[in-house]
């Protein structure tokens, strides 16, 4: 997650020239990701198939959807994609590669 937060933060800070906004969003991303350490199953699987069958779930943090699955064996949440909310989600989800 750290890598994704940096990319999003850098884009907002340096491309959009909004460093204060970048700091706030990174903080919100961290909080949301940390919340997944407790009962990540509370987030339902997505409806799009076949990804829902693979256990892919999504949460929203500001203008981004974070797609993830739960690795039960390792007791970890694996982020598989972060997609800007105004993109075509079905098209973008179609690019997710499931490598369990």
Structure described in brief:
This protein is of the alpha+beta class. 36% of the residues lie in helices and 22% in strands.
What does this structure look like?
There is one protein chain. The protein has a single domain (2-93), classed as RelE-like (YaeB-like fold). The model has no long low-confidence stretch (mean pLDDT 83). The longest helix has 17 residues, at 19-35. Strands 1-2-3 form a three-stranded antiparallel beta sheet. The protein has helices at 2-15, 19-35, 89-93; strands at residues 57-61, 64-71, 76-84. It has three helices and three strands. By secondary structure, the chain is α+β, with helices and mostly antiparallel strands. The chain is globular, with a radius of gyration of 14 Å.
The overall strand count is: 3
Might you state the CATH topology name?
YaeB-like fold
Fourth CATH level, the homologous superfamily: RelE-like
- Strands of the widest sheet, in order across it, are 1-2-3
Shape: globular
Q: Which band does the percent of strand residues land in?
A: 15-25%
* Relative helix content: 25-40%
Please render the helix and strand layout as text.
Layout: H1 2-15, H2 19-35, E1 57-61, E2 64-71, E3 76-84, H3 89-93
Antiparallel strand pairs: 1-2, 2-3
Provide keyphrases for this structure:
alpha+beta, 3 helices, YaeB-like fold, 3 strands, 100 residues, 22% strand, single chain
């Amino acid at each position: 997650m750290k890598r994704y937060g940096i990319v999003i933060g850098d884009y907002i800070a340096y491309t959009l020239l909004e460093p204060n906004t970048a700091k706030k969003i990174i903080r919100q991303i961290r909080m949301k990701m940390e919340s997944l350490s407790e009962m990540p199953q509370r987030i339902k699987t997505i409806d799009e198939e076949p990804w829902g069958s693979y256990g892919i779930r999504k949460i929203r943090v500001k203008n981004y959807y974070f797609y993830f699955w739960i690795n039960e064996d390792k007791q970890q949440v694996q982020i598989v994609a972060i997609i800007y909310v105004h993109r075509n989600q079905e098209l973008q989800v179609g690019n997710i590669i499931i490598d369990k």
